[in-house]
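yo

u said u wanted the structure for the complex thing, so here. seqs first:
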Amino acid sequence: MTYLEREPAAPKAWQDEMQVTNRYTYGVAGERFFRAIKDESKILGTRCNNCEHTYVPASLFCERCLDHLDEWIDVGTTGEIVTFTHLYVDYDGSPLLEPETIAFIKFGDGGIIHRIESNESQQIEIGMSARAVFKSKTERAGSILDILHFELMTS
Amino acid sequence: MSDRVAIIGIGWSGFRPVTPEYSYKELMYEAARRAYSDAGVDPRRDIESFVTVAEDFHEGTSIFDEYTPDQLGAVLKPMHTITGDGLHGLATAYMLIKTGQFSLVAVEGHSKASNLLTPDGVTAYAQDPVLNRPLRMNTHFVGGMEMNRYLYESGSTQEQCAQVVVKNRSNALENPSAPFGADLSVEDILSGPPLSWPLGVRETAEHADGAIVMVLASEEKAKVLSETPVWILGAGWSNDSPGLENRDWSSANYTKNAAKMAYRQAGIYHPYQTIDFAEVSDIYAYKELQSLEELGFFQFGEAGLVTEEGLTHKDGDFPVNVSGGCLGMGNLLDANGLARALEIVLQLRGTAGPRQLEGINVGLAHSWRGVPTASGAVMIMSN
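structre next:
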C-alpha cells in the first residue's frame, strides 16, 4: 500500500521521549584538571616522556604507549588557534541569528575547544594566539564553563 | 577455513526523505525479502547467522538488538547487532564465514531517520560530556572545524567542495533509488546558507529512510547459488582517539589505516591503478576529497583539483559516488556503508542501469560514522 492510498485520518504514529539523566565522573586526572582551572586559573597537562607528548586536557594515561602519567605541567593560558568555525545552528538544531565562533586552541600537544569572544570573532585566523578568559573566582564551579571564552591576541 | 567470501544477494527498501506508511520493521522486512529472493535462499532454512548494525539513540529504543530477529527471519537463530556502520557489519559477516563455521550469513542496516525528531540531540549526546557538551554547541561545529583546517593545509577550495555536491547530486538523477538528484551549479551550492562556516547547508547530506540487506556466502555455496557473485577482496576498519583535543584536524588517519588493512588483505599496492571506481563518504562534501586522499588514490591536496578536472565524474578515469553518494541518496545513519557497498555490487554485477560503468573489475566502498566520530571502514570487492 502506498502512502497516497492511505486513509488520511487513520492513526499512523505514536510519539514518546526517552528520559535520560546521567552523572559523569571527572576521574582522578579530570578532577585535578578542573580544580586547577577553578582554584588557580591554570590549564594543566600531563607529560608522557616515552612518547614525548603532553596531553591537554590532562590524562591519567598515555593513549600511545598506555603508560601511567604523573608528571603534571602548567601549559599557560595562551595558545595557538589550530582551526575554527562560525556556527550558525544552535545546540538543538534551531538557527542562530548571530553565529558563534568556536575554535580549537593548542596547548602542549593537545588543546581546548571553546568559544571566541564575540566582538572579535570576525578577525579570527588560523595561527593567531588566543588567551583564556576565566569567570570571576566566586562564580566558578569546577567545569569547562569556568573559562568564559577565549580572546584573540591581535597585537 | 573456507576460501573466498562473496556477496550473493542484495535487497533494499527506499530511499526516501520520509516513509510515514512503513514502520522500521516493515522497511527491514521488505529489504530482507528482496535480498533472500535475489540470493535464492530461504532464510528460515538456509541462513545460519545474522548481523545487524544499529545505534539505540537513532532507533529510540534501548537495547535495540533485541528488536531485530523477527523481521529478518532470524528468530531462534544466531544473531547480533553492532553499534557501528554497515561496513563494520559486512566485515563481521565476512569474518563469520571465514571461521568456517557458517556458509550463509545475512547483514542488515537501516535508517528511519524521519522518526528521529531530535537528531541534533543525539549527536550532541555523542560529544564528550565534560569537555565539550557543557558548551552547548551543535555538533556540526566538528565538521566546520575539520573542513576549515583541511582546506587550510591541503590548499583545496570551497569551490572544489561545491563541485563534489554538483557531481554527486547530478549522478543521483540516474539512480531511481536516490531521492536528492538535482542539476545544480557551483554557484547554487556556494550561495546557500552557511551551517558551520566554511561548511554550508548544501554541502551536507540530508537524512533519508531505507533498509539494506545483503546475503554473504562461502565460496562453495556462492558457486552453487550465484551466477554473479561479488567477491570480497579485503575489509579494514580503524578508529582514531575519540577526543577532539587529541585528533589531527586536517587528516582522517582512521580512513588511512582502514584502507591499509584492506589493501594488505587484497594484496593491493597501487590503489589507483588496481581499483576502477569508488563509493566514499560524502556526508559533508569535503569528506569525499579528504577520504579519496586518505585512501591513497590521490596525494594530499590533489583530490579537489582532479574533481574540478572531471576525473571523478561518472565518465572520468576514476568515477566516485556514481550512486549519488550520501549527498544524492541521503544520509542513512548506520546504513551509509551498506549503501556505498550496494552500489559497488550493482556495478560489478553489471546491473546498475543507466549509470552502469564499463570495463570495471574492482570497486572500493568507504564509510565514516559522521560527527563527532573518528571511525572509518573500507571494503574492496571484485566480480
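Chain A has one domain: 27-153. The two ends of chain A are 67 Å apart (CA to CA).
cya
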